[in-house]
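Aim 2 progress update. The chain analyzed this quarter is reproduced below.
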Amino acid sequence: MAELALPAAVSVTPVHSVLRRFLSLILVHGVLIAGAIFMLAPFVWMLVTSIKPPSEIFSAEISLWPKQFYGIENFSFAMEKAPLLRFALNGVIICTGILMVQLLVAIPCAYALAKLNFPGRNALFVLVLLGLCIPVQVPAMPLYIALAHLGLLNTYFSMMVPFFLSVFAIFLFRQFFRSFPDDIINAARLDGMSEFEIVWRIVTPSAWPAIAAFSVFSTVAHWNDLYWPLIVISDAKLAPPPLGMMFFADAETGSNYGALTAAATILTAPLVIAFLVARRRFIDGITMTGVK
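Predicted structure tokens:
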């Protein structure tokens, strides 16, 4: 009976294997498509609402494309009632300033944790990991008091200073630098290069995928940050995009959802463009650093 059962098992197994692989692909792609729809639906609805007239926004009938195109009126009203380009410029200044200082601080620290041997290196790395658990709300009060005593409230610096040190950046770059060949670093040392020269002239140029990945994380996080600017900023001219949207959504425009979504579209566009430009480097950086 064993000899009779063996040919049947051999003939059935390939069919089952192909069918199982086909069903698994359908399941995986179905989950991915459902997740993509779930993530994209709010953006699509925002774009559609920004070109609809008020009568269609509050209509019980749901339609993706408006019967009457009202985009010019909504975007014009949004641009007239609020300095949206100024808000976007503030966001660019804040995100760029934070990112530059974060890279200047995190790259040497990550290199030291990855490639230099010194007492307490592992303990220091554990402290870095513990720093990931501390939210920005914890040091908010002492930072606010210090900035108030120094007279630095209502400045770009006050919005940037809490984020100059990024433990996530140190962790990300440390994971990337660990895979950098030690032979190249030792050869550079034999040629008389200092550690800082090795960091900035040899190691950092190879870390562009990780830098691009972290840049996307940092820019998105601080472009959308409302908590800290709401505390230290009261001047609308210095408001970043989220705080600017709060100033824009006042009693006069609070019910004009077409104009509000048009303003949100304008302030979201730079993030989308930046991600599309850096998406390949972003994916490479995520896969090469092992961050899931």
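The chain has 14 helices and no strands. The chain has two domains: 2-50, 81-289. These observations will guide the mutagenesis experiments scheduled for the next reporting period.
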